[in-house]
Design brief:
The protein has about 300 residues and is α/β, with parallel strands linked by helices. Helices cover about 45% and strands about 25% of the residues. The protein is built from 11 helices and 12 strands. Strand 8, helix 8 and strand 9 form a beta-alpha-beta unit. It is rod-shaped. InterPro entries: LysR-type_TF, LysR_HTH_N, LysR_subst-bd, WH-like_DNA-bd_sf, WH_DNA-bd_sf. Pfam families: HTH_1, LysR_substrate.
Length: about 300
């Protein structure tokens, strides 16, 4: 049986108004059109719905029994086909999954959580670790937001540059390079290094910049996270080249020293990414706005 949802709206109006004329006025249609809808409803349900008693019409026992159910069904259909444009943060209950670079979680995560909890106490944030390989969770809707230095290439993934930060060199206190007036590219290349790569890469854009100067560096190890890499620098003469903004607080806590990188390199970008299915999701757009602010503050600080 094929159902016409317009009949549901007509039935709701008839039961609410108790007359064909009232229902017609409610739905902004003519009385003959509403009368025809009532006829179709009667044929579909096998019930008269409204019967004339003198000058008025009275609902049948069946109509009385289904009145609330019809009204609720219509409300549910309207919610599916015409979702509300209003977002009630006070009653919003939802869990968002965020896959951010570990340093961005440490630096911007607390500010984001405080903003979210202050506006929508029923919302929870689930931060998950980045993978060492490309994974499809963002496209499958299993991850709501990503934040890192990589701009996605897939056409269905949105990406917004929310900030940039320059690369710096991190060394231990008392390191020989911390005592020189200028860390030249030659001095930098002559030292031993640890790279940061969740995929275990031992080279990156720094090596390309050194090659243009006819220089090479010796990379003795790679670490999956900036936090792990910084630990290598604490008790050795190893150099760690990392984004300034994302490691500022960790460097201070560990008692390390930040030196300028004597190479011409573009700033490290911070991209916020999501799947296009969430473009018109009001709760998701609200979260994106808060995340954008938290990440931009990280890059600017």
């Amino acid at each position: 049986m094929q159902l016409d949802l317009n009949l549901l709206a007509a039935l709701d109006a008839l039961l609410e108004e108790g007359s064909v004329a009232g229902a017609a006025a409610r739905l902004h249609v003519t009385a003959p059109a509403m009368s025809r809808s009532l006829g179709r409803i009667r044929r579909t349900t096998g019930d008269q719905i409204l019967v004339r008693t003198g000058r008025t019409m009275t609902p049948t026992p069946y109509a009385i029994a289904v009145r609330e159910q019809v009204h609720e069904l219509l409300h549910q259909v309207q919610g599916v086909l015409a979702p509300s444009r209003e977002l009630d943060l006070g009653t919003l209950e939802r869990t968002f999954t965020l896959r951010w670079h570990d340093s961005l979680v440490a630096l911007s995560g607390p500010a984001l959580l405080a903003a979210v909890h202050g506006q929508a106490p029923g919302v929870r944030l689930r931060f998950v670790a980045e993978s060492s390989i490309d994974t499809p969770e963002l496209r499958r809707g299993e991850v709501d937001l990503e934040a890192n230095a990589n701009r996605p290439s897939a056409p269905d993934i949105r990406a917004e540059n929310v900030g940039e930060t320059r690369l710096v060199v991190v060394v231990r206190q008392g390191h020989p390079l911390a005592r020189v007036r200028t860390v030249t590219a030659k001095r930098y290349a002559a030292a031993e290094h640890v790279t940061v790569s969740r995929r275990g890469n031992l080279s990156n854009a720094v090596d390309d910049a050194l090659a243009r100067l006819g220089l090479t560096r010796r990379v003795v190890a790679s670490a999956p996270t900036e936090a792990a890499a910084l630990e290598f620098a604490r008790g050795s003469d190893l150099l760690i080249s990392v984004p300034e903004a994302t490691t500022r607080s960790a460097v201070a806590d560990l008692g390390l020293v930040v030196l300028p990188l004597a190479l011409e390199l573009p700033s490290a970008p911070i991209y916020l990414s999501w799947h296009q299915r969430y473009d018109t999701d009001h709760a998701h757009a609200w979260l994106r706005g808060l995340a954008r602010t938290a990440l931009a503050m990280c890059a600017a600080s």
